[in-house]
Write a structure and sequence with these properties.
With 216 residues, the chain is α/β, with parallel strands linked by helices. It contains eight helices and five strands. It has one domain. The longest helix has 21 residues.
Length: 216
């Protein structure tokens, strides 16, 4: 009750917003937008923001995500994720990946990571992939079945995956990761050391959680 004897309306908790920073400007954003539409969430969605970014290395993406956390519009309940790949060690060595990982963990930033590239995740929509490490994305495209399933595939393509394919990819990724980790050097403790690996499904889980708990 207020001073005039009127009941105050309960204050609705602020709904969280998920801010996503992607390494690629097309492949990953297209996939995520397709997922939102396929699940019936719709796009654009005010709870899911695929942020514009001017940089694309892991460290730069994490630093952009940290800056977003400091903005006045960022609420305590909001979440930030970055999406990037391992790539070849020549392009980005393990020390720099470790620096990016530590910065993200220190700021509670989620990482949707694929080793060696996002195409590992795409391949899992069609088949089980385990026991075969790839040195680069070119290596994966040449020596996996990806081009068998997608003969004209090029980065940035909009691929109309079905709900069933995405559900299969989620389960196959978990199994693949378990096999990879089980066979890896026991001193390796981070995904950038595990090949093949992807946890993109964890970002999809985060999207589902936010939008199912906070519908429009």
């Amino acid at each position: 009750m207020d001073k005039k004897g009127k009941s105050k309306r309960p204050v609705r908790p602020l709904a969280p917003v998920l801010h996503i920073f992607c390494e690629g400007k097309k492949t990953e954003p297209y996939y995520l937008l397709h997922y939102l539409n396929l699940q019936g969430y719709g796009t654009p969605h005010e709870r899911i923001v695929i942020a514009d970014r001017k940089t694309n290395t892991p460290i730069q993406l994490v630093e952009e995500a940290i800056r977003r956390q400091k903005e006045e519009s960022y609420a305590p309940c909001d979440r930030v994720w970055v999406v990037y790949d391992r790539e070849s060690e020549v392009a980005y060595d393990s020390d720099r990946h470790n620096n990016a990982w530590q910065k993200a963990e220190g700021k509670n930033i989620g990482i949707a990571f694929s080793n060696v590239c996002f195409e590992v995740w795409l391949l899992l929509h069609y088949q089980v992939t385990a026991g075969r490490a790839y040195m680069s994305c070119d290596d994966l495209e040449k020596n996996s079945q990806l081009k068998t399933y997608l003969p004209k595939y090029a980065k940035g393509d909009k691929i109309p995956f079905t709900k069933e394919q995405i559900a299969n990819a989620r389960e196959r990724a978990k199994k693949m990761n378990a096999v990879t980790i089980d066979g890896a050097n026991k001193e390796w403790t981070h995904p950038y050391q595990w090949n093949p690996y992807t946890n993109v499904y964890e970002l999809l889980d985060e999207i589902d959680k936010i939008l199912q708990e906070n519908p429009r």
